[in-house]
Amino acid sequence: MSSIKWKNIDSSTIAGLIITSLPPISKPKMRTSTTEIDGLDGDIVENLGYKSYTKTISIGLSYDYDIDEVINYFNGQGKLVLSNEPDKYYNAQIIDNIDFEKLLRFKTADVSFHVQPYKYLLNETKQILTVTTETSLTVENQGYEKSKPIITIYGSGTIQISINNINVFSVTIDEDDEYITVDSMQEEAYCGATLKNRNMNGDFPLLDSGESVISWTGTVTKIEVEPKSRWL
Fold it and tell me: pLDDT tens digit string along 98-133?
């Protein structure tokens, strides 16, 4: 039987809710800009990034439903897991109205999720290394697309971080701080709730598909990496 997990709640736990069909696995469209130039055959197409899109599921009700519980379930934003892709999640939001009157009358309705273009590995392990004499850590982006990792660096002073022997960024950890997190998903550097963008110099890192070696110079006591493996 089809099911979903929405905001960490499994649809099977909602009284009387039935997931009758799931959307097909599909790839988002690329946003493009097309320019025509006089004297040039054809045109120039510039890729601008992938579009967000809609995934629609069909739902039904069994005899023991609680409509208030169903209405409460389908709202807001969060992680969406579909049973035909159980190891991945989408960042999604419900922004369209749901015809609950139709659901009550005919026991069927559609729910549209506005999803961001990439899907992520659901139970990805954070890689943690307490540094003794090590100067590098091998991490893996299990997805097929470049990922935007979250890297937390514990230590002191100025630390240079390289990926596959290419210098990417440096951070300076202040005396009052234990660590700095460099978050490529949000493109922010922070320590707890305090922004530390001024303590970072360079680019937010990306990880190619497969294994990458993260290395460093400077005083590092621990490093934590969430690869954020992703697919289209």
Answer: 999 999 998 999 999 999 999 999 999 999 999 999
Count the residues in the chain.
Answer: 232
Domains and CATH numbers, the chain: 4-119 (2.40.30.200), 127-231 (2.60.120.860)
| 3-state SS assignment for residue 198 | helix
- For residues 173 and 159, the answer to whether their CB atoms sit within 8 Å is yes
CA distances (Å), 11 to each of 18, 144, 155, 176, in order? 8, 29, 44, 45
Contact predicate 212/163, CB 8 Å:
yes
Residue in this structure with the two tokens 């369209």, named with its chain if needed: 96
